[in-house]
């Protein structure tokens, strides 16, 4: 029996895949929700730990590989030791997820009062827009503590279950949430900052995928306009259309981004009292949970 592995399946010679050669192909995808729980259990068995809420950790690590999950458990063990505890807790794992995603906290980095206020409104903008939409993952945590990745703050959303299929409305609302931070800056401070650079990148990437790969544009219907190369090596893509169509795709992407941006601005403008109250609370606490944010939101609607 001969086993072989590759992360370049598209380059395999057809002769290798004929009957009698490599008869069976097994595709190893990233683990699903139950798979992540099982992997976490394997790695947690190697460290002393309290009762862990695996649902919280597994839901927060969607898209993570087995190696990344092992790294998360290691980070949690190191954090427990630094905190003088002998067992890993759920809180350690949650913090280690953030460390792997956004980098370690930089508590010695001091933001000016102006920057701190701007970052707070930016993050509450994301959270408010997410909370006021359907088909949007619940807000889990909001923080304005800078991270080693360069992020000055972030809003963490965690889906309640594994999402396999994403609807057009779901993707559209994700882009709306991404534009929420910049929208808050525009409405509250009447200016824009560089803090939205990553949001802009992600929003543009999602909007382009809706048009070129997912057939979610009325103009191009179900026409495939982009091909993904090296799916297991970063998945770089290339357009499969004429130069004129490529320019028109840019206009279609811009239309989607503008629509989502306008929706985010309208949501924030209609809920300015929540923006001010939640931002003030975040500035004081620096980190708040989704439950604390939703309490402020429900207090207004009650």
Walkthrough of the structure:
This protein is mainly alpha-helical and 302 residues long. It folds into 2 domains: 33-102, Orthogonal Bundle (Helicase, Ruva Protein, domain 3), CATH 1.10.8; 113-301, Up-down Bundle (Methane Monooxygenase Hydroxylase, Chain G, domain 1), CATH 1.20.58.760. Helices cover 53% and strands 6% of the residues. The protein has helices spanning 33-44, 54-60, 66-82, 90-102, 113-131, 168-189, 197-212, 243-269, 272-285, 290-301; strands spanning 139-143, 154-157, 226-228, 237-239, 287-289. The strands form 2 sheets. Strands 2-1-5 form a 3-stranded antiparallel β-sheet. A two-stranded antiparallel ribbon has the order 3-4. Strand 3 and strand 4 (237-239) form a beta hairpin. Helix 1 (33-44) crosses helix 2, helix 3 (66-82) packs across helix 4 and helix 6 (168-189) runs antiparallel to helix 7 (197-212). The longest helix is centred in the C-terminal third of the chain and has 27 residues, at 243-269. The termini are far apart. The model has no long low-confidence stretch (mean pLDDT 88).
CATH top level label of the largest domain: Mainly Alpha
Low-confidence stretches: none
Q: CATH fold name of the largest domain, please?
A: Methane Monooxygenase Hydroxylase, Chain G, domain 1
> Helical segment tally?
10
Mean residue pLDDT: 88
Number of DSSP strand runs: 5
Structural category: mainly alpha
Q: Tell me the strand order in the biggest sheet.
A: 2-1-5
Cα gyration radius (Å)? 22 Å
Beta-strand proportion: 5-15%
Shape: flat
CATH architecture classification of the largest domain: Up-down Bundle
Secondary-structure element sequence?
Answer: HHHHHEEHHEEHHEH
Helix content: 40-55%
